[in-house]
Amino acid sequence: MEAVLALGIGVLTASGVWLILRPRTFQVIIGLSLISYAVNLFIYAMGRLKVDAPALVGSGTVANPDAYSDPLPQALVLTAIVISFAMTALLLVVLLASRGLTGTDHVDGVEDE
Amino acid sequence: MDHLIVVPVVLPLAASATMLLLKERRRKAKAAISIATVVALLLVSLLLLERVVSQGFAGEPGARAYLLGNWPAPFGIVLVVDWLSALMLVLTSVLGLTSLAYSLARWDRAGPRFHALFLLQLMGLNGAFLTGDLFNLFVFFEVLLAASYGLLLHGSGVVRVKAGLHYVSINVATSLLFLIGAALIYGVTGTLNMADLATRIPSVAGDELALLQSGIAVLGVAFLVKAGMWPLGFWLPGTYAAAVPPVAALFAVLSKVGIYAILRVYLLLFGGDLGWTGNFGEEWLLYGGIATIAFGTVGVLAVRSLSRLAGYSVVISSGTLLAAIGAGEGEVLGGVLFYLVSSTLALSAFYLLLELVERQEVEASLTAVVEPVFDDEYTGLPSAEAQEENEVGVVIPATIALLGGGLMFCSLLLAGMPPLSGFIAKFAIIQGLLGLDTVVTPAIWLLIALLIASGLATLIATSRAGIDLLWTPSAKPLPMLRLAEAVPVGLLLLVCLGLMVFAGPAMRYMERTGASLQDRASYVRAVFSAQRVGEAAP
């Protein structure tokens, strides 16, 4: 499972980096989204990978931490997802504004010669 | 618990939420709410500062923590007010007040929802300065960045949208780096609370060490992009030049958030003599800072417009701070903090002033009203002429003399010429650098030479621009100077003057702050000994 997850994060990051270096605004946005997926998976992985382990400890018992997965990275991921989603939406608006004002979808607002 | 600590975050949030309920046309109500909020923020931050000072100089610990949600320290989120954060809060609210007052003269009408965004920006800044938790720092960074995206686009137009697109993309990418760094640190240490990290990091060893160090390095890159270090800061001058003046004046403190984060995280977690943590990344800050000063110096001499000149002055100021932090601790930190405050105030005043000076030239290009991009976006900016007719604003005589005087004052501050506070700050840094070791290394000599050279370059560039704009005979009518625009600039310069006159007490505070940054134990103690509500004191 570790290898699959690591590969997934790697491929997403690599494609994202390639895309944000492209000259079209839409490619940049997709690239940033891909990297943010990769980062979300990465944060999740930092809580260590466990299968079939609940994140919440029942009350009244002293829990054995080995039997549970770490809830904190999951909470962090939720926050990170919401924030990067909002930022992507905002970036799309700026993209549209830029397209409308300059008439091109080049990131610099002018086409290369 | 002392609920005053949470006010700088909650108050602007509540005020800006209230403002969304008001229609865009009710400008007077909105302006009244935001001015009242900002004045209240200034009072609260002065109160917090006063408490830190009165407790700190009386021998008690200056730092106090506030447990949000009433969870005990390493598990819940804490806000911490200490010497450094109280200072930054006051600085932010002074800049907030002056920029907001300035914007009320006309700029707040250049687009929708200016006041709500402005207050959210202040909330993000205050939160970033107060938080004692790494992930919460990220959240407040996002709040202040989200507001800054809106503020940068305020007024719209091709230049701003183009700059905005770059600014947003760079900062979204940087935030992702921040997350990677924070996640790595969490993965190794299992905590994100800064006080807890400070106690756990020294014991990390073996394989985990490499992971932790790369996490910190990635986090550092994120901070340095914000601070504008060469070669990560190419976005800075163009972005700041595109923003409307009151926003640029507030942005002057935005790049200092990166510096603050480095001061806080770096000194808390890696200062001291704890093995590898002792001087981790120090050379990067020193040489990066030196390169930044050099880049800024060349930039200042090369540019032809005042707003870009101000942008490169921001770069120089960041570089000076980074290099001085990297050069060493001890005596230098007092000078660093003094320079941080003085240069931020001067830059903010400079941004406000240069629009007044350049008004005739810029009027046509930047303030030209552009077509709204979206239907609901626009409420209409009355054209400058129509506005001047029905404005009851007082027009001040001797415009040129006042503007010229202000510009000269700013130039001297930025260049670090005696007798103003900029000089005192640079002098304190240089004195601290010379006193670091018995033998002064070549890198330190280079830094000192660059500090002086950058001052000279700033002086040359600003006087050239001043002669160009103010002394060249011109057929154009003199720019109008309104009281509402002159007073904020005057206020900022007055604070700088105050820093000069009361340099002794101010320097004592800065030195105490510098000492408190190296006193990790008392910060950790303040966080862990914070009392929960409903729990008896031991």
Q: Keywords, please?
A:
heterodimer; A: 113 residues; mainly alpha; Helix Hairpins; 3 helices; B: 538 residues; two-stranded antiparallel ribbon; 72% helix; globular
Can you tell me about this structure?
The complex is a heterodimer of chains A (113) and B (538). In chain A, 64% of the residues lie in helices and 0% in strands. Chain A has 113 residues and is mainly alpha-helical. Chain A has one domain: Helix Hairpins. The longest helix of chain A is centred in the last third of the chain and has 32 residues. The model of chain A has no long low-confidence stretch (mean pLDDT 87). Chain B is mainly alpha-helical and 538 residues long. Helices cover 72% and strands 2% of the residues of chain B. Chain B has 21 helices and two strands. In chain B, α4 packs antiparallel against α5. The longest helix of chain B is centred in the middle third of the chain and has 35 residues. Chain B is globular, with a radius of gyration of 23 Å. About 6% of the residues of chain B have low confidence. Chains A and B meet through α2 and α3 of A and α5 and α6 of B.
Give the CATH topology of chain A. Helix Hairpins
Distance between the termini of chain A: 48 Å
Poorly predicted segments of chain B = 363-393
CA gyration radius of chain A, whole angstroms: 19 Å
CATH architecture of chain A: Orthogonal Bundle
**How many domains would you count in the coordinates of chain A?**
1
Strand content of chain A: under 5%
Q: How many DSSP-defined strands of chain B?
A: 2
Tally of alpha and pi helices of chain B: 21
Series of H and E elements of chain A = HHH
Major sheet characteristics of chain B: 2 strands, antiparallel
- Total helices of chain A: the number is 3
Compact overview of the structure:
Chain A is mainly alpha-helical and 113 residues long. Helices cover 64% and strands 0% of the residues of chain A.
